[in-house]
Amino acid sequence: MGANLKTARLKRRMAVKDFASRVGVSDRTIMRLEKGDDGVSTGTLAMACLVLGEIDRFGDLLDPASDDTGLLLDRDRLPKRIDGKRRRTRGRSASAGPGPSETGPADDEGVGF
Predict the structure, then answer these.
(1) Degrees (nearest 5) of the Cα angle 85, 74, 42?
(2) Over the stretch 87-102, which tens digit does the pLDDT of each residue have?
(3) Is residue 77, in this structure, part of any structural domain at all?
(4) Coil, helix or strand at residue 72
(5) Is 72 part of a structural domain of the chain?
(6) How many structural domains are present in the chain?
(7) What is the DSSP secondary structure assignment for residue 77, as one 8-state letter?
(8) Is residue 94 part of a domain?
(9) Disulfide: which of 29, 33, 92, 107 matches 25 by Cβ 3.0-4.6 Å?
């Protein structure tokens, strides 16, 4: 990420000193950021992205919609089978009588009338 940040700065023809001034940090901090030093704050990274006009990319960093691993984990947690009879009878006594979906036959789409 640091190398990409440096490339973006150079493409914009910004010197380290000017870039650091606009980000609000020292030249040394920018050099550490571009080397990938994990001691530089995410706030500094966000400001650097803002100065480069790329703040929207920072927001997309951990977007849940593009988190492939998270999406796969969600899919694995889906129930393997849904038992409709259990859901309808849960919390209902046997003498309560038929519910709305049990009063008539179901059509081809599974909707009871």
Answers:
(1) 150
(2) 555 555 555 555 555 5
(3) no
(4) helix
(5) no
(6) 1
(7) T
(8) no
(9) 29
